[in-house]
Amino acid sequence: MRSAFVAALMLCAATGLALAVAPRSARIPGLVALALASTGAVFAPVPSGWTDAVFLGCWIGVAANAATVHLRRGLRARWAVALSLNAGAWAGAVVALAGSRFELLEALPCTLALLATASIAGRRLPITLKVVSSWLIAVALLAAILPFVSVTPGYLPDHLE
Amino acid sequence: MDIERSAGDANAERMRRVQPARKRFPIRKTSLAMHPFRNTACRFRSTPTCALLGITILTFASPATAHMGTGLSGGFAYGFRHPFTGLDHLLAMVSVGLWGAFLGPPLIYVLPVVFPIAMVAGAVLGMLSAPLPPVEIGIALSVLMLGACIAFALKAPIWAASLVVGLFALFHGYAHGRELPSAADPFGYSAGFVFATGLLHVLGIGIGVLNARPSGRVATRGLGGFIAAFGIWFLYRAVGT
Question: Is the predicted ipTM greater than 0.85, yes or no?
Answer without folding.
Answer: no
